[in-house]
Amino acid sequence: MQSALDPAGGDASRIYWLTMTMTVGGILIFLSVTSLLLYAIFAPPERRAWLGSRRTIIYGGLAFPIITLSALLPYGLIVMRDSDVPKAGALPIEVIGEQYWWRVRYPADGDRVAFSTANEIIVPVGRPIAVSVTAADVIHSFWIPNFGGKIDMIPGRINRLNFTAERPGIYRGVCAEFCGDQHARMAFDVIALEPAAFETWRTEQAKPAQDPEVPLLARGRELFRAGGCGSCHAVRGTEANGQFGPDLTHVGSRRTIGAGQFPNNIGTLAGWIANTQHIKPGVRMPSYGSLTGEDLRALAGYLESLR
Amino acid sequence: MNAPERPGSFGEQEPELPNPLPRPEGEFEALKKAWKAPRGISFITAVNNTYVGLWYVGTAFLFFILAGILALIMRAQLAAPEGDLVSHDLYNQLFTMHGTVMMFLFAVPAVEAASVYLLPNMQAARDLPFPRLSAYAFWAYFVGGLVFFGTIFFGLSPNGGWFMYPPLTGTKYSPAENADWWLLGIGFIEISAIAGAIEIIVGVMKTRAVGMSLDKLPVYSWAMLVFAVMIVIGFPAIILGTLLLEMERAFDWPFFIAERGGDPLLWQHLFWFFGHPEVYIIFLPATGMVSMIVPTMAQTSLVGYRLIVLALIATGFLSFGLWVHHMFATGLPKMSLSFFSAASTAVAVPSGIQVFAWIATIASGRMKLTTPSLFIIGFLFIFTLGGLTGVMVAMAPFDWQAHDSYFVVAHLHYVLIGGMVFPLFAAFYYWAPVASKHALSERLGRWVFGLMFLGMNVTFLPMHITGLIGMPRRVYTYPVEMGWDALNLVSTIGAFMIAAGVAVFLFDLARNFRFTLEDNAGNVWNASTLEWLPNGTYNTRSIPSVVSRDPLWDQSNLSKDVEDGRYYLPGTATGGREALVTSPFDARPQYILQVPGPGWQPVLAAVFTAAFFLLLTVKFVFTSVICGVLAVGCVIWWLWETDPGPVRPPADIGGGIVVPVYVTGPMNHSWWAMIVLMVVSGMVFTCLIFSYLFLWLVNPGAWPPQGVRIPDWIWPSLSALLYCASAVLIAVASRQLRGADRRNPRSVPILIGVALLLVSGAAAVDLWTQWGTNLSPSAHAYGAAVYAIVSLQIFFVLTTFIMGIYTIARWLAGRLDSVRRTTFDNTMLFWYYTVGQGLTALLVVHGFPRLTGGI
């Protein structure tokens, strides 16, 4: 699910083979050195005498590492040259690390309009992806092990990472740079879809939220408005236009909530709203523990309906 | 003593001994009396290297255990997913403290401590050249370290990681004092490390056995020399870094705040320019120990001595060229990644040389499988593996995956536990007989080794996989179903195995370690080096002359002759404590250094220094300043008793060698120390200039930013003129103070006094000039950088000022004349440095913006 040993993109597999080469080579060298050491200790003196000279140091400690490293270094540099190369026609995505979640923006692309989402990156299979990252507060690091290495998100700087998903699936990314209280709970989903499915998703995401038709959900929407949720969160198509927290226009369509913490359903949404500071102490959002059970259900139901 | 058969043994053909028998009545008694340790409560005022060294090692080991306990709590938390043994905040403090304490309060002090104990013995020096300085370094570390560690019990420990990356550690995201504890607490522990490094450099270069030329120096001394030079070069970067971050936190000077022209990456460069060499700073002394233990256990000379020394120097040199490999994921251009990738792999070569030199030595002798040997073998296993994973992470693309994952946790523990903790345990078992009545138990030692070796591998081997399957570092918990559960549980079990091994070691220590000097267990391993000579607080009765690298094997009867006082300086020439200073290359006797004895000054100065920094942390500014003044006062009180002058005519130390008891100028030990201090200061300043230029690079076209006026050139010129004039006056004073007749011309205090006014004027003019342009230090990184340079210069001028006043006071008290002028020389050297730094600062601050297009 989240592993550098299960590559799903070109860069990750290049690095995977570098890893394997170095692991096998490293094990062989380790075994040779330790057997030599044991030989030096336990072999009969006359048989190990040849080892006890400067020649051993010159060959083993100087020549051998120089030759091995001279072979390895170009391989490593070639992998580096080929990895993370910007490609023409790439799909641009902007990701901003915030304590402790991910703001994801899909900029306008041709006639497709821009929109924002959070904690979830949907990509089409086969098309190169160009992610540009930065941070809004402290340093974070953007890492999807199955697609390649990580890149730091640094305030005031924009870094880039390029990858291509080679097979559809659900992958997971995490923050790899310690970023404060809830660094441990800062993950996101990466979902690779077939190009057609991706286009559908994109079209849906660009639309404003739909007005609820069921009374309970309408009540949830009213609670959302009256509770001031809109001062931090945006729901496009309503008066809620806060930019501080994640955009919730299509929050119901996301796989997980709380930056990759729980599966997304009405129960977890309600639990999250009521107990934010208990579940993820230190995040910006306060717990809304004073809501009655019914109100909570209505509010969570409304959010879940934002698909 | 049955010396092993070896080619090139000097055997019978030994030079005539310098001093005849029998020794005069009372000579030995006088020596013992001079070196007698104080009794009762005053015992803590002892400054002799054996006492301070032992306390130092003990304290460092205490921190090893404390930081280890923190690790056990973390491992218990991570034993299962979603663990809730500790809160996220406590966990963040735990891992920050574990790293910080292990690095700053255990590893560096431990290797420094061991050398305080061992170096003089190994070089047959009576003591380190500045015993009070090592006592000061120890007490500052002891008091400061314990208070710093105590913060964990109050939830006040730093929680931003041992690397303290801003902006997370800036006031905006860490408003509480936790971060200040790190910045100020660690700041002065670094000062303690630098004090130790100065001591070690001068000790290795100047106080050795007669004839112990550089090519006969024990490898351990070489390792400590490279270690100390690396501290002198590397630590200033972190000192400056902590200074800048603390100034940002305290005064809102935006060095690392991107919105105001700062850059978080500046911190990372400063931190890792120190942080990477730090690893080798810890590792090299350990390899030095290994190079001492292996030949003894194999009962043969070290193979490849010159190659090993070369490897030590090469490691030290290379280690300063690869700090960026900690920043492979920060988005630097691939071009620079390639360079640092290559440099990082290159450092494997000198390590390879050392490993194969030990294998060759083992092969050419007969390795006895004692406890020290087992720890050495364990070290070679573990360190080789850690070195190989080190080559892996040196490959930038692999590092993009492994960086900040558990793979790196595994790698660094293999390198540090393998490369430093195992050699240290080998050293405990190996050298215990020097300081204890009994050796430690071989039987228990095997248990210690077995538990630690297995535990180490059980803990950290699985972490390589844990990291590659995606587990990031520094997480207080992890979700279920990630596939990390079993591996983490295994790691936790391993951690407790290591703890069990350490517990058995403590038991062994309690049962068998009994501190003593005269009746120690002695040379139980039949080792070849001088620390195994019979010794007391005065170290060796007489100072031997050596003709090879393995004197105890090659010079028969050496122990007996040294003990009988047949070698150099068998008593005391001045009636007090003395050390024999030798020339730096071929170790010919140069003069007798009158070593200061016990005193409350270093203890009090250290306590007040610690109080100054710690009280500043909790914002008790007034009390803190009082402690700072008291600390400076204690240092002056301590210095007042030094620089004794030629208290007697040159003395005969034996063999017809007559040496003075006081010298000045470049031969003097404190001249050397001052030069090293100037290098430290120069490095701090260089790092500051680097920071200035770095901030310029991230602010293209805004250096200075819009609306900032650069002062008219006339003011910096005036300031420069004043600096130069003050230096000229000091040079004139130095000329006046020349000659063999002990003159103390009246012009000297007047010249120093006027020069003081000039140098203070120079700094004042510059500060006033900047102030006059309304440049704000907190509006933009430009102003912050300019004021940082100006402030550092003012700090140096203030120090010069105190030194100048002190020198005048020495003259007024009749303690300064044309012969007894070490105090003046020190002030003079520091003065020239301050002037040089001031001129450079003016050139950068006023010249550079004009070059980059400012007006």
Which key terms come to mind for this protein?
heterodimer, A: 307 residues, alpha+beta, Immunoglobulin-like, 3 domains, five-stranded mixed beta sheet, 12 strands, B: 855 residues, mainly alpha, Cytochrome C Oxidase, Chain A, Four Helix Bundle (Hemerythrin (Met), subunit A), two-stranded antiparallel sheet, 24 helices, 4 strands, 63% helix, globular, disordered N terminus, metal-binding (chain B), respiratory chain (chain B), heme binding (chain B), Cyt_c_oxidase_su3-like_sf (chain B), cytochrome-c oxidase activity (chain B)
Description:
The complex is a heterodimer of chains A (307) and B (855). Chain A has 307 residues and is α+β, with helices and mostly antiparallel strands. Chain A has 3 domains: 10-82; 91-206, Immunoglobulin-like (Sandwich), CATH 2.60.40.420; 215-305, Cupredoxins -  blue copper proteins (Immunoglobulin-like, Sandwich). Helix content of chain A is 38%, strand content 21%. In chain A, the strands form 3 sheets. A 5-stranded mixed beta sheet of chain A has the order 3-2-1-5-8, with no helix packed on it. In chain A, strands 4-10-9-6-7 form a 5-stranded mixed beta sheet. The model of chain A has no long low-confidence stretch (mean pLDDT 95). In chain B, a hairpin with a 6-residue loop joins β1 (578-582) and β2. Chain B has helices spanning 27-34, 49-78, 88-122, 131-150, 178-206, 219-251, 264-298, 305-318, 334-346, 348-364, 371-394, 396-402, 406-435, 442-468, 485-512, 551-554, 558-564, 600-617, 621-640, 669-698, 714-736, 747-772, 781-812, 822-851, and strands at 578-582, 589-594, 651-654, 657-659. Chain B is mostly helical. Chain B has 3 domains: 49-512, Cytochrome C Oxidase, Chain A; 523-659, no CATH class; 676-851, Four Helix Bundle (Hemerythrin (Met), subunit A). Chain B has 24 helices and 4 strands. Residues 1-13 of chain B have low confidence and may be disordered. In chain B, α2 packs parallel to α4 and α21 (714-736) packs antiparallel against α24. In chain B, the strands form 2 sheets. Chain B has a two-stranded antiparallel ribbon with strand order 1-2. Chain B has a two-stranded antiparallel sheet with strand order 3-4. The chains are: A alpha+beta (307), B mainly alpha (855). Chains A and B meet through α1, α3, β7 and β9 of A and α3, α9, α10, α11 and α12 of B. Chain B: It is a multi-pass membrane protein. Chain B: One of its GO terms (cellular component) is plasma membrane.
